[in-house]
Amino acid sequence: MVNGQRVLVIDGMHEIQEVLHAVLVPRGMQVDWVRSHVEQVPGEAAGRPDILVIDAAALPIQKSGNDREWRGVPQVILGADEGASTADSDSQHTYLNTPFQFPDLIRAIERLLPIKAA
User: Fold this and answer.
1) Full DSSP string of 8-35
2) In degrees, to the nearest 5, what angle opens at C-alpha 87 toward C-alphas 10 and 78?
3) Could you give the CA distance from residue 57 to residue 104 in angstroms, rounded to a whole number?
4) In what helix (H) or strand (E) does residue 96 lie, and over which residues does it extend?
5) pTM of the model
6) pLDDT tens, 75-118?
7) Are 70 and 52 spatial neighbours (Cβ–Cβ below 8 Å)?
8) Considering only CA atoms, which of 28, 18, 80, 81 is closest in space to residue 50?
9) For residues 82 and 108, what is the distance between their CA atoms, to the nearest angstrom?
10) Three-state secondary-structure class, residue 115
11) 3-class DSSP state for residue 86?
12) Side-chain half-sphere exposure of 30, counting CA atoms within 13 A
């Protein structure tokens, strides 16, 4: 992970954002949170996030990659489908069934986060 990268959490519950903030901010990352895809994103004018963490209940999957400038942004999708799992992941998406463990979420973010040139 590279300092200054931005994680956007789209989740109706604040707990995921709190854990990611506690783990990722000390590593030099920015963590923003919104309740749903229709809410104004903090710092949206500054550019798109480097990765999205999406609670499928807060953002329907069919909308996850198409809103705003999120096309091509790697996504960790939580609770997307009973049958979805990390085995169904591709280079841009990872699916974690709920309930999930926070270490699994951190690993998924680290794996998908693009490497930025310094």
Assistant:
1) EEE-SSSHHHHHHHHHHGGGT-EEEEES
2) 15
3) 19
4) strand 93-96
5) 0.76
6) 999 986 545 444 444 578 899 998 889 999 999 999 998 765 44
7) yes
8) 28
9) 18
10) coil
11) helix
12) 14
